[in-house]
Amino acid sequence: MDQEKIDQIVDNYTGEDGVLIQLLLDVQKELNWVPKEAVQRISERLQIPLSQIYRVASFYKSMSLKPRGRHLVNVCLGTACQVRDGPRVMDRIRDVLGINPGETTPDMKFTLERVNCLGCCALGPVMVVDGEYHGKMMPAKAEEILKGYV
């Protein structure tokens, strides 16, 4: 971890109140996760207890306390996606990537996550890769899309 990058991010918020969530999101954006060293540095610099930082970082799904791959793949398995073959889409993605939801490929290219709802039920089943939504997903289509990220 580059402590200088963390210090630059913290410097952007020096003297401001209620910045912890945005600061952690900036660290997440920069490093693709929130490492222990970053949490410790933020705690030191802002005089915020480690427990408070971990409580915030572990509450929000958009923050990860473990390394994530370069590409984040979210597969919706909410009710609408579930009844439209979302589980088959997830199965194909698991087969293609060789990982289960919550895991990252050994080469750090992909992290796969299961989500309960993405709020676009009419497009179900839905897969999101790096914030790009792909609706009316079919297993073969999901595999084709993932190959474009390799």
Q: Into which percentage range does the β-strand content fall?
A: 5-15%
Radius of gyration: 17 Å
Number of helical stretches of at least 4 residues: 7
Low confidence ranges? none
Mean pLDDT: 93
Secondary-structure map with pairings?
Elements: H1 3-11, H2 20-31, H3 36-46, H4 50-59, E1 71-76, H5 79-83, H6 86-97, E2 110-115, E3 127-129, E4 132-134, H7 139-147
Parallel strand pairs: 1-2
Antiparallel strand pairs: 1-3, 3-4
Helix pairs in contact: 1-2, 1-3, 6-7
Quick gist of this model?
The protein is of the alpha+beta class and 150 residues long. The chain is 45% helix and 12% strand.
Task: Explain what this protein looks like in three dimensions.
- This protein is of the alpha+beta class and 150 residues long.
- It has 2 domains: 3-59, no CATH class; 71-147, Glutaredoxin (3-Layer(aba) Sandwich).
- The chain has helices at 3-11, 20-31, 36-46, 50-59, 79-83, 86-97, 139-147, and strands at residues 71-76, 110-115, 127-129, 132-134.
- A hairpin with a 2-residue loop joins strand 3 and strand 4.
- Helix 1 runs antiparallel to helix 2 (20-31), helix 1 (3-11) packs across helix 3 (36-46) and helix 6 (86-97) runs parallel beside helix 7.
- The model has no long low-confidence stretch (mean pLDDT 93).
